[in-house]
Amino acid sequence: MSKSELKILCPNGHLGFAPSKEGSFALGKEQHPDYYCCDSGSDDIGPVPLGEDACASPYAWQVHDLEMMLLAAREQNAPMIIGSAGDTGSNSRVDMYVDIIKNLAQKHNLKPFKLAYFYSELPQAALEAKMDAGVEIKGLDNRPALTKEELDATSRIVAVAGVHPFIEALKQGADVIIGGRCSDCAVFAAPAIFEGFPPDLSYYLGKVLECASFCAEPYGAKESVLGAITQEDVKVTAMHPDQRCSIASVAGHAMYERSNPYYEYVAGGLLDMTNCSYEQFDEKTCRITGPVFKPREDPYLVKLEGSGKVGEMRVGIAGVRDPYSIKNIDKVLAWAREQVAEQMKGVDYELHFIVYGKNGVMGDMEPQKEITSHELCVVIKGVAPTAEQAELVATMGTRGIFYARLPEVKGTAGTAAYTVDEVLTARAAHRWTMNHVVPVKDPMELFELHFDQAGK
């Protein structure tokens, strides 16, 4: 270990999901961080992008963030690390990011640098072979173990890497690393562990940096934060002039999203934050001590994410302003369901109504005693094997709201319910088929590491 302190700048909690703010990034660059790191993926976006092997974020926004980071990193000769490329970390998204980096290097006449990248996509045959050999692929979050039927229903699978591919790339002198699907915190923990800092603090550093300015207050997304690690502590500082990393904002971020707020499962083990201590180091900086990383004993488990296509989807939108229809919206939707069922006999379809505005909040078809909103917006989703069938489901579901027959109504009540007269094309519907873990003998077993050169 040569450094007593390591500084990492993170500009965005999800690279490209919305453009990173250049002002706070420039302030972070002035701190001369040792690494520029950012996570670019999430399963929060749902199973569709993975199933369709597509991005959830606009290409131009991803190029913007990569360009901003690459130019700063190469100017200061600091490594740059990206994880879960292109929202999903599939092989094609990794290739896309590698091409972007190469093109940017040419565009800006950058000196040659070593580019590393790894793949996370997993063929079905690899899991089938493990299952045939008697390996149980256990489900997470109360899912049953993986079956051949669910495997067959899966369109695409990615394995979630830990710190190991990043550390191996750094060992081999990589200047820029583009990662496939990986644990969010691994992007930041890996360089800290590689540089000789304790895993306990390194994984916490990853946890606090992974969402960038979400750990700061007041709320402001897509702003840069600077994390610093020593042998004794982690410090995190907000770069935006009007934000600060307070005890409340940092501790709150560390404990969100989990039934047990003191534990975070990360690739390779468990981050125990029970005994974390938070103190206000200065006006904009919070200091953290006390996290404990508990590595998992053999076997090493790798998380798997799989997506499978359900069917084609079309979407309708209906606005309801008639007070009586609003009061009886559950009956209106039930009538619309009956009309779709009558028209779609023998077809394996799905019809979903999402109601916005039930007393100011989003609701579903759960009955409410009284609805006081003056207007409802109903989003209708029709899913079926073919596009034509999905359009029929969505169209009938939408117009069924307009033509609903309420037994107490005499005359035309529907004239007060306004609807669009055509449905909208949407991406195909997918579902998560796989949220499982597979045992491996080597943490690198499922991840292919490659090297290339970029620049002139």
Topology:
Blueprint: E1 6-10, H1 22-29, E2 35-41, H2 48-52, H3 59-75, E3 80-87, H4 91-107, E4 113-119, H5 124-132, E5 138-139, H6 148-152, E6 156-160, H7 164-171, E7 176-178, H8 186-194, H9 199-209, E8 225-229, E9 234-238, H10 247-254, E10 263-266, E11 269-272, E12 277-282, E13 285-289, E14 292-295, E15 300-320, H11 323-327, H12 329-343, E16 350-358, E17 361-363, E18 376-384, H13 387-402, E19 417-419, E20 424-425, E21 429-440, E22 448-454
Parallel strand pairs: 1-2, 2-3, 3-7, 4-7
Antiparallel strand pairs: 1-8, 4-22, 5-21, 6-15, 8-9, 9-13, 10-11, 11-14, 12-13, 15-18, 15-19, 15-20, 15-21, 16-17, 16-18
Helix pairs in contact: 3-4, 7-8, 8-9, 12-13
Descriptive key words:
456 residues; alpha+beta; Alpha-Beta Plaits; 2 domains; ten-stranded mixed β-sheet; nine-stranded antiparallel β-sheet; 13 helices; globular; AtuA_N; Acyclic terpene utilisation N-terminal domain-containing protein
Q: Could you give the count of β-strands? A: 22
Find the structural class using helix and strand composition. alpha+beta
Low-pLDDT stretches are: none
Largest sheet report: 10 strands, mixed
Instruction: Please give the domain count.
Output: 2
What does this entry look like structurally?
By secondary structure, the protein is α+β, with helices and mostly antiparallel strands. It folds into two domains: 6-120 and 161-299 and 441-454, no CATH class; 309-430, 2-Layer Sandwich (Alpha-Beta Plaits). It is built from 13 helices and 22 strands. Strands 12-13-9-8-1-2-3-7-4-22 form a ten-stranded mixed β-sheet, with helices on both faces. Strands 5, 6, 15, 16, 17, 18, 19, 20 and 21 form a nine-stranded antiparallel β-sheet that branches. The protein has a three-stranded antiparallel β-sheet with strand order 10-11-14, with helices on one face. Helix 8 runs antiparallel to helix 9. InterPro entries: AtuA_N. This is Acyclic terpene utilisation N-terminal domain-containing protein. It comes from Dethiosulfatarculus sandiegensis.
